[in-house]
C-alpha cells in the first residue's frame, strides 16, 4: 500500500496491514445492495460511496441518537473523507461484507461522517483516539454510548483476524458482548477518559497577562525546524514528507526579521531549497500542474496522488512569495501552474472551488481502480506519443528520448519495491525532473531555451492524451473554509504578478461565497454546498452552519482580496464576519476561539480549540493575523486586545513546541513588532495609483496593511480611520505615506522612492 490515509499522525504497522489485507479477502460475502440505505439522500460524495453497503447507515444527527437511546445500543461512528485510500479499502473489505453489515445493523447504530463536512465531530473523537491508542488517522472508527461519550476507538481494521491484528468482525463481536455484560464499567471508563481529555485539552490564559516573547519563541521555532530539516532533499522530517506551507511561511517571515544574521540567511535558504526540490519532484504533477498530497519517500518522488484544494491554495501563496523574495521565475511559473490547474480542474461555474481529486482511477483496459493510474507513464507510451526528431543535436534524438532523459523515465519503471510491494507498477514511471535545463541541454548540445520549448511541447501533448484516460473522482463539495484559502491564493498571486484575470477569479470566488455560503438574515456563513446538475449549486438536507475555520479563512481571503482589488466592499464584509465570529466562537473566560459554536455542538462531549498548524493552518493562528490586520483598518482597540489574549491563551504550547504552531509564531512576531500601514491617496483605478500599489505588492512584507484612500471623507475607510482625511495628494499625484507606531513618513509620489522607504 502506498503510504497511509493519514495527516502527519501515525497508524500502527502500515506495511503488514497493506499487504495482509489483500490476500484473504472473502469475495463471496461481498455484496452491494440493490436498494440503497439512507445515505443515498446525502450530498457528500464520501457518504454516497457507502449508500449501497449492506449496513443500515445513518448520517450524524438526532435520528441516530434517538434510536441508540430507545434501543439501548452503542453507536458505531466511522469517519473518513473521499480521497482517503484506507477509507476505500475498509469500505470494500468490511462495509460491503454481508455478515459484518448484519452485525453493524442489528447490534449497533451505525453512523457515517465525512470529516470535511463535520470537522467538529472529527476533532472531538480524534482527540479520544489519539489519547487512547497508538495514534490517529482515517478511517477513524469509534464506539460511543447513546450519550455520545466515546469508550473504544481505532483506525483501520482488516475484516478478519490476521497474525498481528484483530479483525473488524472480532472487534464488533467483543464490543457487543462487553456492552451486554459490562455496560456499567464501560460507561464509567468512558466518563473518566472524557473528564481527563477535558482537562488536558484546555487552552486558557490562566493567570498570565501577556504572551511569551516573540524573539525567544521564533528563535526556538527556527531551531526546532533546523533539527528536522533535510539538508539534501529539503523539507522536514523523514518520509512521508508533506509540503507544509505553514512552515515555509514562517521561514520567510523569520528571514525578514533576521535578514542580517546567519540564521536569517539559513531560514531563507531552507525554504527556497525545499520549494525547488518539491517543484522538481513527483509530488508536483508536471503534466497537469498542481501538487499531490504528500510524498511517500524523502526525495519527493513517489506521491500519494490525491490533490487537495487547501494544498493548491497555500502552495500558490508560498511559491508567489518565494518569487517576491528572490525574483526567480521558477517560483512564479510554479504558482501560475497551480492556479491554472485549479481553474481547469477544481472550478465550478458559480465561481466556487471543489475540494479534491482522488488518487485512484481505473487503468486502461481494467475494471478495478488503482492508485496513481491517471498519472503514470511507460517508456513505450512516451516513445509512441513523442516520435518527432529533434534538430541540431550532437547525436540522433527524438523528442521522446529527450523527454524521458529529463524526467527520469526508464524501461523498468522508476517506482521502487518499497512503494510497490506487489510489483503491480513494473515499468510505470512518475515524472520527476532529474536535471536542470542547462544540464539536459549540454548533454545533447542544445540551447537551454530550445530544451524548455521542446519539453513544454511534450508535456502539452501528454496532457491532451491523458485526458482520454479514465479520470480520478472529483469531490464536488465546496467548503467555505477552503474556498477562503483559494480566494487568498488567486488574490495574492494576482496582486504580485499584476494579473487582473487572477484577481478576477478571486473576486468570483468571493461572490460565490456571498451568494451560496452566506445567510443574509443572520449574517452567518454556511459550511459548504455541492455542485448539482447544469452548473447549479445545492445544499444538503442537513445543512450545517460554518465552523471557526470557515470564518477565519474567509476573512483572510477577503482581506487579501481587498488589498488586490482595492474594492472596500470586501473589507466591509470581512469586518462584519469578524464580529459574528467573535460572537459565536470567542471564549471570554479563557481567551482564543472554540472550533465550533456552543449550541451547535450541544451533544458533543468536548468543545475544543485547535492547537496545531498542520496541512491547514489552525483557525486560531489565522484569526490572530486577521485581528492584527483588522485592528489596523479600524483602529478598534478591542480587536488588538483579543489578539493579545488569544496569543496569551496559547502561551504554553508556543513556549514548549512552537514548531507545532509556526503560523501563530508569525502572528506573535508581527504583534510585537507592529504593523506597517501603507496609505496610498489616489483614485483607485488611475495609472499613478496603480504604479504605487504594484510597488507595494512587489515586496514581501508579512506585517503590511495596504489602505487605499480615494479622498472621499464619507467613504467606509475614512469613517473607520478619521486620520486619513488629513493625508493629502502632493501636486494632485497619487501619493503614499508609510505609518509605523503612529508615526508617518513624508509623502512620496515615485514608486522608486516608496520602494526605498519600504525596504528600510
Automatic annotation (TrEMBL):
It is found in: Secreted. Keywords: Developmental protein, Differentiation, Secreted, Spermatogenesis. One of its GO terms (biological process) is cell differentiation. InterPro entries: 6-hairpin_glycosidase_sf, 6hp_glycosidase-like_sf, Ssp411, Ssp411-like_TRX, Thioredoxin-like_sf. CDD domains: SSP411. The keyword Translocase does not apply. Residues 36-197 form the Spermatogenesis-associated protein 20-like TRX domain. Its main location: secreted. GO terms for cellular component: extracellular region. Residues 1-32 are annotated as: Disordered. Residues 9-18 have a biased composition (Polar residues). SUPFAM superfamilies: Six-hairpin glycosidases (SSF48208), Thioredoxin-like (SSF52833). May play a role in fertility regulation. This is Spermatogenesis-associated protein 20. It comes from Vombatus ursinus (Common wombat).
Amino acid at each position: 500500500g502506498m503510504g497511509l490515509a493519514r495527516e502527519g499522525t501515525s497508524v500502527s504497522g502500515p506495511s503488514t496491514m497493506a499487504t495482509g489485507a489483500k490476500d484473504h479477502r472473502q469475495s463471496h460475502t461481498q455484496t452491494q445492495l440493490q436498494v440503497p440505505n439512507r445515505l443515498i439522500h446525502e450530498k457528500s460524495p464520501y457518504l454516497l460511496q457507502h449508500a449501497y453497503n449492506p449496513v443500515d447507515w445513518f448520517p450524524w444527527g438526532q435520528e441516530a441518537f434517538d434510536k441508540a437511546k430507545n434501543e439501548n445500543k452503542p453507536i458505531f461512528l466511522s469517519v473518513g473523507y473521499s480521497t482517503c485510500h484506507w477509507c476505500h479499502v475498509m469500505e470494500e473489505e468490511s462495509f460491503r461484507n454481508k455478515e459484518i453489515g448484519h452485525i453493524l445493523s442489528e447490534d449497533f447504530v451505525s453512523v457515517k461522517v465525512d470529516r470535511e463536512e463535520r470537522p467538529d465531530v472529527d476533532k472531538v473523537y480524534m482527540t479520544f483516539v489519539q489519547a487512547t491508542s497508538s495514534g490517529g488517522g482515517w478511517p477513524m472508527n469509534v464506539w460511543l454510548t447513546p450519550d455520545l461519550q466515546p469508550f473504544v476507538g481505532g483506525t483501520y481494521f482488516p475484516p478478519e483476524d490476521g497474525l498481528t491484528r484483530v479483525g473488524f468482525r472480532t472487534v464488533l463481536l467483543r464490543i457487543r458482548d462487553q456492552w451486554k455484560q459490562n455496560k456499567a464499567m464501560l460507561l464509567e471508563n468512558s466518563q473518566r477518559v472524557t473528564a481527563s481529555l477535558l482537562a488536558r485539552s484546555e487552552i486558557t490564559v490562566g493567570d498570565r497577562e501577556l504572551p511569551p516573547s516573540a524573539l525567544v519563541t521564533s528563535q526556538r521555532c527556527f531551531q526546532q525546524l533546523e533539527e528536522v530539516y533535510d539538508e539534501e532533499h529539503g523539507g522536514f522530517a523523514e518520509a512521508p514528507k508533506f509540503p507544509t506551507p505553514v512552515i515555509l511561511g514562517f521561514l520567510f517571515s523569520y528571514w525578514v526579521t533576521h535578514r542580517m544574521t546567519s540564521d536569517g540567511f539559513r531560514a531563507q535558504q531552507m525554504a527556497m531549497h525545499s520549494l525547488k526540490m518539491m517543484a522538481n519532484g513527483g509530488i508536483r504533477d508536471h503534466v497537469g500542474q498542481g501538487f499531490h498530497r504528500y510524498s511517500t519517500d524523502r526525495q519527493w518522488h513517489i506521491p500519494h496522488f490525491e490533490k487537495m484544494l487547501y494544498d493548491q491554495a497555500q502552495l500558490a501563496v508560498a511559491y508567489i512569495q518565494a518569487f517576491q523574495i528572490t525574483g526567480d521565475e521558477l517560483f512564479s511559473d510554479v504558482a501560475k501552474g497551480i492556479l491554472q490547474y485549479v481553474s481547469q480542474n477544481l472550478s465550478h461555474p458559480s465561481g466556487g472551488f471543489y475540494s479534491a481529486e482522488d488518487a485512484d482511477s481505473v487503468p486502461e483496459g481494467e475494471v478495478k481502480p488503482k492508485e496513481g493510474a491517471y498519472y503514470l507513464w511507460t517508456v513505450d507510451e512516451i516513445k509512441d506519443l513523442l516520435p518527432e526528431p529533434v534538430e541540431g543535436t550532437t547525436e540522433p534524438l527524438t523528442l521522446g528520448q529527450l523527454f524521458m532523459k529529463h524526467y527520469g523515465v526508464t524501461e523498468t519503471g522508476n517506482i521502487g519495491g518499497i512503494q510497490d510491494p506487489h510489483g503491480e507498477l513494473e515499468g510505470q514511471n512518475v515524472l520527476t525532473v532529474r536535471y536542470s535545463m542547462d544540464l539536459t541541454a549540454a548533454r545533447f548540445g542544445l540551447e537551454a531555451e530550445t530544451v524548455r520549448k521542446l519539453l513544454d511541447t511534450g508535456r502539452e501533448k501528454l496532457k491532451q492524451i491523458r485526458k482520454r484516460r479514465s479520470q480520478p473522482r472529483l469531490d464536488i463539495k465546496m467548503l467555505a473554509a477552503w474556498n477562503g484559502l483559494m480566494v487568498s491564493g488567486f488574490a495574492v498571486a494576482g496582486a504580485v504578478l499584476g494579473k487582473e484575470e487572477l484577481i478576477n477569479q478571486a473576486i468570483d470566488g468571493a461572490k460565490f461565497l456571498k451568494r451560496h455560503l452566506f445567510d443574509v438574515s443572520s449574517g452567518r456563513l454556511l459550511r459548504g454546498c455541492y455542485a448539482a446538475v447544469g452548473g447549479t449549486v445545492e445544499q444538503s438536507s442537513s445543512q450545517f452552519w460554518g465552523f471557526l475555520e470557515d470564518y477565519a479563512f474567509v476573512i483572510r481571503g477577503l482581506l487579501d482580496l481587498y488589498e488586490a482589488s482595492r474594492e472596500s466592499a470586501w473589507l466591509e464584509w470581512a469586518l462584519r464576519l469578524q464580529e459574528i465570529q467573535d460572537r459565536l466562537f470567542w471564549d471570554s473566560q479563557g481567551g482564543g476561539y472554540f472550533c465550533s459554536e456552543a449550541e451547535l455542538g450541544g451533544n458533543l462531549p468536548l468543545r475544543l480549540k485547535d492547537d496545531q498548524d498542520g496541512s491547514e493552518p489552525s483557525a486560531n493562528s489565522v484569526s490572530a493575523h486577521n485581528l492584527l490586520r483588522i485592528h489596523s483598518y479600524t483602529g478598534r482597540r478591542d480587536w488588538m486586545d483579543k489578539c493579545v489574549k488569544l496569543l496569551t491563551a496559547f502561551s504554553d504550547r508556543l513556549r514548549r513546541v512552537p514548531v507545532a504552531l509556526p503560523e501563530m509564531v508569525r502572528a506573535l512576531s508581527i504583534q510585537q513588532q507592529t504593523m506597517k500601514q501603507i496609505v496610498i491617496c489616489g483614485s483607485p483605478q488611475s495609472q499613478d495609483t496603480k504604479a504605487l500599489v504594484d510597488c507595494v505588492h512587489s515586496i514581501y512584507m508579512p506585517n503590511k496593511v495596504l489602505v487605499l484612500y480615494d479622498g472621499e471623507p464619507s467613504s467606509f475607510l475614512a469613517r473607520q480611520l478619521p486620520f486619513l482625511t488629513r493625508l493629502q495628494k502632493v501636486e494632485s499625484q497619487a501619493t503614499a505615506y508609510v505609518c509605523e507606531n503612529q508615526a508617518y513618513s513624508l509623502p512620496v509620489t515615485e514608486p522608486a522612492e516608496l520602494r526605498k522607504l519600504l525596504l528600510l
